[in-house]
């Protein structure tokens, strides 16, 4: 799954759910979002400065806030 493109991951998740349910995604700056259409995309640095494979809580919080604001 790590090698799949974002749009493929979204398609797989929604295939299991049975319908389009994902309105927004939050991803890091290295993710290719060019093929993602009709969804809100929040693309920002999310990793912690001391442990790169973990999310920085404040950065993630800020990204979640932006996604919620964009959803209305």
From TrEMBL:
<protein>
    <recommendedName>
        <fullName>Transferase with NAD(P)-binding Rossmann-fold domain UPF0052 family</fullName>
    </recommendedName>
</protein>
């Amino acid at each position: 799954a790590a090698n799949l493109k974002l749009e493929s991951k979204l398609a797989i998740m929604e295939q299991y759910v049975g319908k389009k349910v994902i309105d927004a995604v939050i991803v890091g700056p290295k993710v290719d979002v060019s093929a993602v259409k009709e969804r809100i995309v929040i693309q920002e640095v999310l990793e912690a400065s001391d442990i790169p494979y973990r999310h920085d809580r404040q950065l993630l919080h800020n990204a979640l806030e932006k996604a919620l604001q964009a959803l209305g």
